Amino acid sequence: MDRMNAKEVEYCKLCNKKPKSYTCPRCGIGYCNLDCYKSEVHLECSESFYKQCVEEELKSSESDPEARRKMIEILKRVHEGDIENDMSMESEDEEELDSDDEANLLDLETRLKDIDLDNPDQVWAILSDAEKQEFEALVKSGEAYKLLPPWLPWWTIHKKPLIESLDITEEEKHDKHETEYPVIIDVQPFNEQMMISPKIRFNIMNVIYAYTYIALYYNGDYLNCAEEAANTFLSICENMKENKIFDNEEDALESVVQNIKQNEHLSKDVETLSAFAEAGNSILRNPSKMQGTIHTCAALSELWRLLSEAQKEMTVNKHKKEKQLSTKHIQHNKKQNICLSKKIIFACLKKLEFYISWLKTYGKDMYT
């Protein structure tokens, strides 16, 4: 799958011993691992960067109690991890904690209780050095997001069948059929007089694979950072971004993979790439033959909602000096080449509506 040419090895600018694997999103320096990133020579940059992570996350959740609850949950789990680490290292550490230090370690929830969670400086100030370092490491590695409840992708949920047992309870009905399944948008009937290239199905595949990547990357929460997620989507979807036409499914998928690999901010490990490719294949080849292309139409409808929400965010943020982005990409959009505009979004929305309309009429031709 990987067709990229080998490049000259660049070494870590902090230790000069190992090949560079990452780039600091704040100062741009290349480094090899987390130890170098947190080393003394880079401490000032990493400390200020993660303080900004906390600030941005708290600011973006000022009106969202659920987001604040999730942040507290992450901090509490970080704290619990610190306690476990301290216990495992106790035999190696001759200096025992005094009673005051122990009390400080064990009462994170109490310390947060009277803190203004909308004030990032207050939250950051009550964290111990160990808690700050652990939180920094979790955010940088992406592990912080794994502490949140796992997202159940909607395409793993079967759509309600036409005939259903009357014995099923309302709760079972909700859990089995209704949970988070996207509503397919209404579109104009397809003009069957229009001549369409058979390659349209490969273009749709390119869009679907790009969608599954951002859906998994944002853990299903892409609508809450719509403008950023829309930028990410367009940066990896060449059919939407450049109206590129694909000749086969392999090229449609490979295009998304290569665009992901070329973006230094995006996760590109083997597990991530395999997961989004399998998810895209699951949507495109829905196991229930009776449902046809319903999953594909649902995914395109989700993209339609994402771009519509991004358009609204752009209007709201138009007069703001700084846009509130998720902690994944504090500086992400600054380095993207895409200039998201209402004109671009309008064109993409119309294309998505066209694809859905075509699928509703000729969905059976997707794999012929």
Automatic annotation (TrEMBL):
| CDD domains named among the record's database cross-references | zf-HIT_ZNHIT2-3
Organism's domain of life? Eukaryota
Q: Which GO terms describe its molecular function?
A: zinc ion binding
Pfam families assigned to the protein according to its UniProt record, in alphabetical order: zf-HIT
Keywords from the UniProt entry:
Metal-binding, Zinc, Zinc-finger
Q: Which residues form the HIT-type domain?
A: 12-45
Name of protein: HIT-type domain-containing protein
Native species of this protein?
Odynerus spinipes
